[in-house]
Amino acid sequence: MRKKWWQKEIVYQIYPRSFKDSNNDGIGDINGITEKIPYLSKLGITMIWICPIYKSPMVDNGYDISDYDDINPEFGSLEDLDYLFETAHKYGIKIMLDLVINHTSDEHEWFKEAINNPESKYRDYYIFKEGINGNPPNNWRSIFGGSVWEKVPDEDMYYLHVFDKKQPDLNFENPELREEIYHMINGWLEKGLAGFRIDSITFLKKDQDYSSLPADGPDGLVTCKFKTRNRPGIEKFLHELKEKTFDKFDCVTVGEAPGVQYDELDEFIGENGYFSMIFDFKYADIDVESGSDWFKRTNWTTKELRNLIFNSQEALQKVGWGASFIENHDQPRAVSKFIKNTKYQNYIGASALGILYFFLRGTPFIYQGQEIGMKNFERDSIEAFNDISSIDNYERSLQEGYTEKEALNFVNLRSRDNTRTPMQWDSEENAGFSEATPWLALNDDFKTINVQDQIADSNSLLHFYEDMIHLRNDSRYSNTLIYGDFKADKETQDNIISYYRISDNENIQIIVNLSDQNEKIKLQSNDIKVLLHNYKNTKLNGTDINLRPYEALVIKLNEI
Ligand code: GLC
Ligand code: CA
Known about the structure:
binds alpha-D-glucopyranose, binds calcium ion, TIM Barrel, 3 domains, 16 helices, Immunoglobulin-like, alpha/beta, Oligo-1,6-glucosidase, domain 2, eight-stranded parallel sheet, single chain, five-stranded antiparallel sheet
């Protein structure tokens, strides 16, 4: 693969509502991000991705856009954004924004026109269908629960929403709508963005028969994925999108592309693929059978996780490049999800996970707070949740016959609010996030888990992340760690995840004991150099290493 500029980036994902509140209204904002650019620079971050900051009624915290060309007032203004760009630029940090084009808010002018004036061209910007005998057009279930169809008042017509009813889907079959979207995208790229993370992009194409399928739940509905996600015909839309926008710029595009199979990766991220890279959710979602049905929990093992990671890496390596992540704003905190023994949900567990994913072949993404080991926040009643999909999943779990206690447990384990609590900057009031009460309750562990304390402690996870970034990007091993081939080590004991990064003259091994047991691993050489380690000293015994619980290391093997 030819080298691309975005392969060597270290991306930090910002959930703007919860990052830093600069004007003390309890809501994080753009000036808050600007304030923390020096912090991110010190950490070694080279690019940030900011979740949506466009004008929005905030039903889905910005993933419901009512004006693509303006900023939501609670986040600030276009001038604030310019100032953020300028500041970030001074620190050598690039900026990616979120691009949400599968749907808008129902408060977007286009949608308002579509509803108020059925004869206007805007009606065809969305997907409207007639009801059948007073019922919705079919039995598809939306990702956030309930029918994908919402009735239009005073008409026997329904509009389609794959997500919330306040997020009507755009009709990509309409060429005029597509052109408006391309125009908007190019306008943003001309401002000097590094690129976009592209939301829910595999939902653009819907099966045009709009037919029902056999129900898959007691609600009589069936997940809309089978008819709306990565469906035949999408290639035309994605190809045109790329050609008319991204191709004109040297930008980076990261697709949120659930539903893409490994044998289709070439079309998505190959040399002429639609995107620079896509997120692969197969191992992030190991704890649930499907990303959206939280009551379908699995009893996963380290060996299964290892196989998923290896399969993903091997598939990506064949055709292109990956986006490596263990957390985002839709996932629980990684330490809470992947470290089964709560005793190790601390520096040790978090640093093991760090080593595990950070040196995979791909561009690493760090989600805000991951670098200090923030954890899930357990809530004791459903009223304490803000996230719409948590509330929906709670109700669906009850419908499936689970008790309230069980339903609450599923939501606590998986809620998107887990990663949306305010960033923990210090141990003062509201964790230094704001002087006002934050829009979403803080995790009460901020007195012990916060940035300020970890800056002061040279053995903290924060400094460990700095070390990982340094090793990957600015050390004599960078070439191998960034561009080297990935090779799985399939010979280890089941609790160990080990792989190699290999270049012409170097072989680096990443070893993680992802368990609370002592384990042994046999090396190919006893002449090694430890490059990074989450325990103090290595227990090397000839070519054997005795690994302690969640022990993880990066080593250079001197003989291949
Ligand atoms: C993506 C976003 C998620 C949002 C959904 C609908 O999955 O990551 O936060 O709710 O799309 O836009
Ligand atoms: Ca604010």
